[in-house]
């Protein structure tokens, strides 16, 4: 066993509703059955030299991503979804939007892009020679036209909940859906910085609520959710919170330990996450 691992550490460990493995993603994905995963949701490294990655030529980075994507497509259920969340690769002050670079890789597998979701956040590094970056993207792909999608669990409050039809057969009736409106393709969630309740030692972790929205809309209870770049387990937590099975892996032992600790805290009812608030509005009494 690698000397970097604690003596009690096992590379693969099952927790209530989740499997968090310390393994390379290709090796881990090879253990999964074809078409067994309803949702793949992940945020891979951006090839910008973070502590958990080695910077490589862009062509080598894309080739590495392509190998992982191919395995993710192999294990994806026919009605499943694949959500790839990325930002920009930066080289000598020039940005390269990774979702556009990777788009042909997904299309080569016959996947269909359903939404290019913009995740907007208010805080981040401040740039001096260009406008500061305040968004990343989530590209949501499906294998075909028959896919799992449930809008109701992710509706957001109506802007004008008391608005009514002013003419026609429904005059006077509420014009908006009583459970709320479609959240659209621009999502505003705070990123996980030092004052965030979910902050760990990972420098670039998912906010759980962002993944929750994907889990609720694109899977059903009992489905399997996979994150092949697990980090500290936020995607697995989002899955378990809503009665799904979470599968994930990472090659950094410290992150896997944190992921397991967070999942154990979730099971014990002590894990703190920023709540995903989705209040609906009941019809206004007449």
Descriptive overview:
- The protein is about 25% helix and about 20% strand.
- It is globular and about 60 Å long.
- The strands form two sheets. It has a nine-stranded mixed β-sheet, sandwiched between helices. The chain has a two-stranded antiparallel sheet with strand order 5-6.
- It has about 290 residues and is of the alpha/beta class.
- The model is unreliable at about 1-10 (pLDDT under 50).
- It starts with 11 loop residues before the first strand and ends in an 18-residue tail after the last helix.
- Helix 2 links the parallel strand 3 and strand 4 (about 75-85).
- It has helices spanning about 25-30, 60-75, 100-105, 210-220, 235-240, 255-270; strands at about 10-15, 20, 35-40, 75-85, 90, 95, 110-120, 135-140, 185-190, 225, 245-250.
- Give the mean pLDDT: 87
Number of strands: 11
CATH topology of one domain: Rossmann fold
The helix-and-strand class reads alpha/beta
- Strand percent estimate: 15-25%
What is the string of SSEs from the N terminus onward? Answer: EEHEHEEEHEEEHEHEH
CATH class of one domain: Alpha Beta
Uncertain spans? 1-9
Question: Radius of gyration from the CA trace?
Answer: 20 Å
Distance between the termini: 69 Å
Sequence of strands across the biggest β-sheet: 1-2-11-10-3-4-8-7-9
Helical region count? 6
CATH architecture of one domain: 3-Layer(aba) Sandwich
Helix content: 10-25%
Main sheet overview: 9 strands, mixed
CATH superfamily of one domain: Vaccinia Virus protein VP39
- Which term fits the overall shape? globular
């Amino acid at each position: 066993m690698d000397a970097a691992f604690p003596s009690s550490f096992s590379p693969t460990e099952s927790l209530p509703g989740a499997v968090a493995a310390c393994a390379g993603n290709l090796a881990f994905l090879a253990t999964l059955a074809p078409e067994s995963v309803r949702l793949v949701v992940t945020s891979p490294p951006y090839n910008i030299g973070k502590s958990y990655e080695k910077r490589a030529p862009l062509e080598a980075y894309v080739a590495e991503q392509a190998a992982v994507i191919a395995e993710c497509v192999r294990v994806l259920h026919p009605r499943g979804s694949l959500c790839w969340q990325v930002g920009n690769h930066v080289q000598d002050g020039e940005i390269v939007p990774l979702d556009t670079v990777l788009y042909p890789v997904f299309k080569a597998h016959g996947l269909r892009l359903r939404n290019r979701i913009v995740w907007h956040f208010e805080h981040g590094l401040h740039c001096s020679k260009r406008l500061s970056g305040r968004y990343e993207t989530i590209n949501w792909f499906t294998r075909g036209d028959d896919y799992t999608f449930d809008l109701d669990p992710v509706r957001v409050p109506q802007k004008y909940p008391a608005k009514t039809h002013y003419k026609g057969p429904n005059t006077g009736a509420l014009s908006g859906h009583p459970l709320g409106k479609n959240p659209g393709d621009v999502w505003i969630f705070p990123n996980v910085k030092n004052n965030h309740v979910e902050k760990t030692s990972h420098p670039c972790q998912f906010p759980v609520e962002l993944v929750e929205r994907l889990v609720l809309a694109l899977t059903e209870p009992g489905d399997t959710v996979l994150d092949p770049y697990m980090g500290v387990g936020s995607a697995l937590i989002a899955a378990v919170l809503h009665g799904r099975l979470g599968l994930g892996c990472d090659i950094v032992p410290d992150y896997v330990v944190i992921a397991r600790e967070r999942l154990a805290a979730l099971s014990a009812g002590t894990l703190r996450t920023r709540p995903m608030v989705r209040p609906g509005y009941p019809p206004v009494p007449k």
